[in-house]
Amino acid sequence: MTFEALGLHPLIQKALADIHYDKPTPVQEKAIPAGIEGKDLLVSSQTGSGKTAAFMLPALHRFASVPFEKSDKKTFNQKRQAARAKGEKVRYEPAHPKMLVLTPTRELAMQIVQSSEDYSAYLKHFRTVAILGGMPYPKQMQLLAKNPEILVATPGRLIDHMHSGKIRFDQLEILVLDEADRMLDMGFIDDIETIIAATPETRQTMLFSATLDGIVGNMARKITRDPELIHIHSVASRHENIDQMIHFVDDLPHKNRLLDHLLHDRSLDQALVFTATKRDADIVADRLAIAGFSAAALHGDMPQGARNRTLTKLRRGQVKILVATDVAARGIDIPNITHVVNYDLPKFPEDYVHRIGRTGRAGRHGLAISLVNHNDNNNVRKIERFTKQSIPVNVIEGFEPKLSFKAAPSKRKPSGWKPGSKRNASPKFSQRGFGKPAAARKDGAGRSRGQGRSGEGRRAAESHR
Ligand code: AMP
């Protein structure tokens, strides 16, 4: 299958050739023709499957296939110039985009904007703009004043602009909900419903989510008409190209020593280290930098400019080890990330899947290592149940945990591991019962997927992570 066979506009094909997209991925093969037809889509697929192009390409094709209407932009500019000439205050008309992409995080939004710009490189007059929390308002006003055709936004900030009359959606043709399950998990459901209610019923809706079960499925059915259902269970979604392993640690000094050792792995190109809190991201990054690693932190307390600079350095390879929280690292797509280290296990098994999916990008091989305290076994069990995979335990000579545990030999051997490490792996963590059961948590860690958080709960969680 080729992009030409999918019937894409020749100028889009030209742009895809420039960025070396030789053939469509499975999700693109299915979504692009249906999207071009104007059908609503419900797609279950993971990051890394090529889903951004699956919704951007049919949309761009559709826009490129109708003659460009210049008058709208002219009116905008003329009004502004006339106001300036009279020395009056420039009044901005509300922007009225043709396409809106809702996405859970700023990083993901910026990547979508970048992809959209790549795909539309030869399409004149197309502007894609991101409206994100953390970006200064005057800057956003300038962007909106250009009346972009495509808006990529996180729900919270978009709502602010809608309420202040800076954006209206009466001319919206295409609505995309990207990583819809994640947006609901983050408590955006009310915001999303408000936004959808402001869009025309005639719109085309494309919803992408890791799962279409539970409340995501309910919402998906409510907001689409006769949708095309697409389920993609790619290699990436099962993480078959990522070796996963657990290392037991006794205490913090043991954990830090082991982390340093693991990060000296010669097969490591770039690594992402996950911590539970923003404070720990800073502490671990500082410690690694002092130990001589090219390390930096990324988390939600950093100003957007600093976050962008760190991500640019990571992309250029100037930062080798990024220490991040879940929210900040979401959507990072850097093919050279060979290692993901869970310095702390995530609270929710879904986050484990998202974390390890930051490695093994673009068909490469990845290694995901979890540093596990002996009290963490409930969390590991939850992850194993969720991923339907057992995670082998690994022990490195000189870094053995003092707390002993009995382990049967592994059936599944992680490849890509080097001499010097001895595998003391086991078939299933959950069968062994290490340590004590995790203490009952007051933080709602046992909450099942899809129950969502209230807006307040989300903000509290966001500010902590
Ligand atoms: P996504 O799932 O949209 O985040 O895409 C994951 C990665 O795959 C990104 O680096 C994309 O640029 C890349 N990608 C998407 N589609 C293709 C394709 N057809 N050929 C090659 N790379 C692709």
UniProtKB/TrEMBL annotation:
Coiled-coil segments on the chain, per record: none
Domain DEAD-box RNA helicase Q: 1-29
Residue span, Helicase C-terminal domain: 258-404
GO molecular function (one): RNA helicase activity
A GO CC term assigned to this protein in UniProt: cytosol
Protein's recorded name: Putative flagellar protein FliS
Gene3D superfamilies: P-loop containing nucleotide triphosphate hydrolases
Region (Disordered): 406-465
PANTHER family in the record: ATP-DEPENDENT RNA HELICASE DEAD BOX FAMILY, ATP-DEPENDENT RNA HELICASE RHLE-RELATED
Pfam families: DEAD, Helicase_C
Organism: Oxalobacter formigenes OXCC13
Listed Basic and acidic residues bias regions: 455-465
Keywords, sorted A to Z: ATP-binding, Cell projection, Cilium, Flagellum, Helicase, Hydrolase, Nucleotide-binding
Family: Belongs to the DEAD box helicase family.
Domain Helicase ATP-binding, first and last residues per copy: 32-230
Sequence motif: Q motif, positions: 1-29
